[in-house]
Predict the structure.
Amino acid sequence: MIGARTLALLVCGALAALAATAQAQRPSTWRCKRLLAEDGRSWREDVVVVTMLSDVIAIEPASRRDAVDRDFGDAWVIPGLIDLHTHLLLKPYDQMAWDDQVLRETSELRTLRARVHGIDTLQAGFVAVRDLGTEGAGFADVALQRAIAEGLATGPRIWTSTRAIVRRGWYGPSPDDPAVPKGAQTVEGEAEIRDAVRAQAAGGAQWIKVYADYRKQKGGVAEPTFALAELAALVDEATKAGLPVAAHATTDEGIRRAVLAGARTIEHGGGASAATLRAMRERSVVLVPCLAANEAIVLQAGRKGPIVERLNAAKAGFQRALAAGVTIGCGSDAGVFRHGDNARELELMVAYGMTPAQALASATTVAAAVLGAKDLGVVRQGARCGLVVLAADPLADIGALRQVRAVVREGDELWLRRDGR
């Protein structure tokens, strides 16, 4: 039998749990002096965003509320940002060379470090990322995704791609030595391509990343890796699994083949010709230019030698795509450089010809559409709660994205930076 004292403790515990649940299910209210409107080009003035758990349930005039849970004061509030190309399992190359990370560091250590990278990314206002390759760390991105979902770690929502796929003999470390661990899953021929897609899908990949071109050795010139029929087989197998394909491609022929095969996004893409850009636009293929990574590699090389041309080619390719009307999404390739500096991609987009509103859209509505996440990229009733509070107007100066005061992800306020830094 249960004693009176034990029964009383059980009752008290149950009542406390009920009280905590009731508190957790009470709507939260966030007053915004300026909230980015759904058109992405104007501000809604003096409104209150009402959230329940992870969802926005209403946006009301502030005049209807006598009190709110949080008044952000004289600030500009935008939807949570999205980065379509990150590598959370990498740290910047100026801290450790890519080869050394793949060969000398354990997946366990890299996964623990990725938790910190996730916090840095979220603190910068990026509430979701598409992580395009663990670079030798297997399915660690899936483990990190689950840890965040279960509350074991703090970070952005992650769309995973696991190992990535590349033709055998074309990717390091030591491409020609099969005994050396590689930064991606190597394959040869359609049968192995299909097997790799199925294995990655079974392991938790939400995207399949393929290297449609690459260089065979350091300092070499990039060349197409797979025949069009092989890329089509990869896309076909991914489609059977319900997964879209992202293709790393920098040469016109590599990009052209990936587009014709059915890739959803082209990563980097600086070498696309006018005809290929036209095909991208007609097929609604999105360019993810990774401008910040190109800049970082040039800076890390001391702006010397032929590598400087990589920066020039990326800039020119971006400008051609913009002029051609190709849809462009924000993807920084963070991991090549410091996680948390993701906004550098948007700064470069503006420097190379976009308006601040276009750049913001690339990291909100455009990126959300790429992910098929209608609940992200905008603050409206029915959307998932993601708010970034800024100290200045990003439509006037995209550099305001560096002045994050607070981040609200799925109803939880994570940081409040009163100094605006």
Observations:
- The chain is about 35% helix and 20% strand.
- The chain has a mean pLDDT of 91.
- The radius of gyration is 23 Å.
